[in-house]
């Protein structure tokens, strides 16, 4: 392998062979191919893309750079869900115990928040004692024992991705659909899944704000998963406003527990049930959406889903008492109610701005090294479209200091006024469903009946 | 300066500012900006190019990374010639003393051969004792004293280029017209010239084989030179066959000495006089081509040009006796005459193949670390288009071993047969003349009258 010749061929728009991608990734992971050649190659990929067989080969080579989550032969279906990230997106916290309670094995390997989007691991760690770092062998054991594990990517899984991602981050080569796909899918395939549901966000708070880009990313990920033998379905869902009523860490745990109690409603439950229904269908535990939704709701109603969360928290060292007494979660000293200045209909609030308010209060990360304060965050009370009276409490700020709360209050009221003046139509919450065979408008979920 | 943001902007097709290019080059030269960021940026430049002001800024920033050849105020015009490289291209060896003998200051800073093309320094070093490494201050002193110096790029000159070129070589980012231009022109501008004549080769043995690409390169270099205050003219000349009768090192010195004696003819003299005429006109020592050519020929005829070469060899530590007795140059033990298999007209022989035969015999470099054997090489006796009889000696191989000569003989006869069968029309030797104002067909040189 003469690396400069491979770079030149990719630069000229040629496809590299599977063997060449394998040698490149193995050589890079082993430290034999230097960063400066890989960054030049990645930049050529930004311009030339990867054809489907190259993308499959790259994903496989990355997957092969590390260990997989071991898997007994036979047994229940193993299904995961992955979201491209958003503000207030806590569906993983609800879906993992919910689907496990339905008899699906859910190896929920998640990440941390960065920038304006939150991360599942940070939210879970708001529960006192909850541990998300564990060796793969322990994750596999827990998955076998209770059907669900919620853990962080370890050094054993796809080391090539960690190295490549760090390089892309400093060389202007992040926003490439094939490179994003290989990064996400290599990690998901390391879980040895039967099926995967992708929640690809669309709108101003999404990683890929434009519908066309999000659709291309979803289609690309679905094709790579399917080609690798993992049945993959993607839903395009709205991220032109936060999902649910909370954005933060402890307060998102509170909202997730409420959802598992059957006490949540609105957008959050709609997206959660839509994703959960796909997971259940992939697991062969429901033949259609209506049956799947009914089963999910029954599992919540029975208390089995909440019990499964209790089990997860116990297994992972967390304080189980928080589930019945959320006041045991870290709480912010300042809780400030924000009131609407006048009457109106609740507009979609820009998720990026809200996410950045949470980061500014200490609830997120600007760089990967930042510490996260689990207690701070925002609650947005009215649902988009709901009518609001002047003087009505529309939001609650949870802050460390009065000064932080002042800043957040000002930003929030400004964002609300600006949104009111924009008169923007919110995106439909569930936009499209993309499978290996076709794409279709999502249609009705009918979950409320 | 946040380098990833600059890379992203270049990737998106934006122009970076002069200050940004300056900071990038300074940071890279100082080791503060890492290779992996620069290689990604260079790859983005491969796709997006550089606009004229970016290219000017990059060239200037590279120039500013090192020292310049000092220059007294006033005094005779300082003019150099640069070739993009070819096989048998020995015009530098002839032009440097010839123009100096005409009263022009010629600071001929040259490179070594790599791949199929030869290098002026390697040829000069075939003269026993001749030294091409010297500090800039010594080069300036010799230039003042005798009007000409023929030396290699030192560490003092454009260190940014050495570092960038080494990186480009291993990251598939060599063939970019703006990057090539900045590399060549930053070094030439460090000579503090009044004028520069560029010999841009066209044809299968050239770095840019296609006429359009060569023309774009020439136009780009002329514009950068002119913008930087150095009057620059480019000639596009043919490299679809070797230039002159010899390819090697010592044997090219022999041919160059013959040319300075007035004993050479054909393509070599035509290109040499065309380039020399441009140099003389830039120096203000001739008002038109006919006058310039006449002056160059008179200077050869008078012996002044050959005397100037003697002076150069003496100043640079070489054996001056070789000039009157070329048998003192290194000679190969095997001298094999190659005879034509049948009658025909001499076709243009492919320079790349011939250059590679010389490399295979040890007369060139595959990698920069290879040693060069000055004695080996090829002579091609008939001029293109000349009629050849079967059995007539058409070439002479100078080799280290009979086995090497066998290989070269076979390759040469095969190349000759293939060329005969292709019935290719040779390119006109002098194709175009490109100045800052316009491009024009070269027209007639009329040097033989």
What does this structure look like?
- 2 copies of one chain form a homodimer.
- Chain A is α/β, with parallel strands linked by helices and about 450 residues long.
- The first copy, chain A, is about 45% helix and about 15% strand.
- Chain A has 16 helices and 13 strands.
- The first copy, chain A, has helices at about 5-10, 20-30, 35-50, 50-65, 90-100, 120-125, 135-145, 160-170, 175-190, 210-225, 250-260, 265-280, 290-300, 305-315, 350-360, 400-420; strands at about 80-85, 105-110, 150, 195-200, 230-240, 245-250, 335-340, 345, 375-380, 385-390, 395-400, 430-435, 440.
- Chain A has a 5-stranded mixed sheet with strand order 1-4-5-12-13, with helices on both faces. A 4-stranded antiparallel sheet of chain A has the order 6-9-11-7, sandwiched between helices. The first copy, chain A, has a two-stranded parallel ribbon with strand order 2-3.
- In chain A, strand 4, helix 10 and strand 5 (about 230-240) form a beta-alpha-beta unit.
- In chain A, helix 1 (about 5-10) runs parallel beside helix 3, helix 4 crosses helix 9 and helix 15 (about 350-360) packs antiparallel against helix 16.
- The radius of gyration of chain A is 22 Å and the shape is globular.
- The model of chain A has no long low-confidence stretch (mean pLDDT about 95).
- The interface of A and B includes residues 39, 43 and 46 of A.
């Amino acid at each position: 392998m003469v690396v400069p010749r491979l770079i030149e061929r990719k630069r000229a728009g040629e496809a590299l062979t599977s063997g060449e991608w394998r040698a490149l990734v193995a050589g890079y992971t082993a430290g034999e191919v230097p960063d400066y050649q890989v960054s030049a190659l990645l930049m050529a990929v930004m311009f030339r893309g990867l054809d489907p067989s190259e993308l499959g080969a790259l994903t496989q080579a990355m997957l092969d750079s590390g260990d997989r989550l071991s898997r007994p032969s036979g047994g229940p279906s193993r299904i995961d869900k992955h979201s491209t990230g958003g503000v207030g997106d806590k569906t993983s916290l609800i879906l993992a115990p919910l689907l496990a309670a339905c008899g699906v094995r859910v190896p929920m390997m998640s990440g941390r928040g960065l920038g304006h989007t939150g991360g599942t691991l940070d939210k879970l760690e708001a529960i006192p004692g909850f541990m998300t770092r564990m060796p793969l062998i322990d994750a596999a054991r827990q998955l076998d024992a209770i059907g669900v594990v919620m853990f962080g990517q370890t050094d054993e899984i796809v080391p090539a991705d960690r190295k490549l991602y760090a390089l892309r981050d400093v060389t202007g080569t992040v926003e490439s659909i094939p490179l994003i796909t290989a990064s996400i899918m290599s990690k998901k395939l390391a879980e040895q899944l039967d099926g995967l549901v992708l929640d690809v966000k669309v709108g101003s708070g999404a990683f890929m704000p434009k519908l066309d880009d999000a659709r291309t990313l979803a289609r690309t990920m679905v094709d790579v998963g399917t080609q690798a033998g993992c049945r993959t379905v993607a839903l395009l869902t709205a991220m032109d406003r936060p999902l649910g009523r909370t954005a933060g860490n402890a307060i998102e745990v509170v909202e997730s527990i409420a959802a598992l109690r059957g006490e949540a409603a609105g957008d959050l439950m709609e997206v959660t049930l839509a994703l959960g229904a796909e997971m259940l269908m992939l697991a062969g535990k429901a033949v259609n959406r209506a049956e799947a939704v009914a089963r999910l709701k029954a599992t919540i109603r029975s208390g089995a889903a909440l019990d499964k969360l209790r089990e997860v928290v116990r297994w992972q060292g967390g304080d189980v008492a928080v589930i019945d007494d959320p006041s045991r979660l870290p709480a912010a000293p300042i809780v400030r109610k924000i009131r609407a200045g006048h009457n109106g209909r609740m507009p979609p609030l820009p998720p990026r701005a809200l996410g950045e308010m949470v980061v500014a209060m200490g609830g997120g990360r600007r760089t990967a090294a930042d510490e996260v304060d689990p207690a701070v965050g925002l609650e947005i009370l009215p649902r988009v479209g709901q009518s609001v009276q002047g003087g009505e409490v529309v939001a609650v700020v949870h802050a460390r200091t009065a000064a932080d709360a002042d800043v957040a209050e000002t930003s929030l009221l400004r964002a609300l006024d600006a949104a009111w003046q924009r008169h923007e139509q919110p995106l439909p919450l569930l936009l499209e469903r993309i499978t290996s065979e076709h794409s279709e408008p999502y249609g009705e979920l009918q979950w409320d009946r």
